[in-house]
Amino acid sequence: MNKTDLINNISTKSGLSKKDVEAVLNGFLGEITDALASGDKVQLIGFGTFETRKRSGRTGRNPQTGNTIEIPESTVPAFKAGNKLKEAVN
């Protein structure tokens, strides 16, 4: 399912227009992005938690040349599923 499919499904089930659903979805995703960018975490009880994690630096290899390269430490987004989501999937 892609973003367009999600908007169509929510619009059909809720009776809202696709334009309204898209505006809400974009706002929701923007707020999660802003929170993660500022170092906060977003917890949706029963669904899951969006947070950031530190990925330590490491040594890698360029597959074209075979040369070793240093990959710097970085911050990456992460999602941990909540219990209700885990139960629904299983």
UniProtKB/TrEMBL annotation:
InterPro entries documented for this protein: Hist_DNA-bd (IPR000119), Histone-like_DNA-bd_CS (IPR020816), IHF-like_DNA-bd_dom_sf (IPR010992)
Pfam families registered for this protein in UniProt: Bac_DNA_binding
GO molecular function: DNA binding
Keyword annotations from UniProtKB, A to Z: DNA condensation, DNA-binding
Superkingdom: Bacteria
CDD domains xref list: HU
PROSITE patterns: HISTONE_LIKE
PANTHER family membership: DNA-BINDING PROTEIN HU, DNA-BINDING PROTEIN HU-BETA
Family that this chain belongs to: Belongs to the bacterial histone-like protein family.
Name the UniProt record assigns to this protein: HU family DNA-binding protein
Organism encoding this protein: Paenibacillus lacisoli
Phylogenetic placement of the source organism: Bacteria, Bacillati, Bacillota, Bacilli, Bacillales
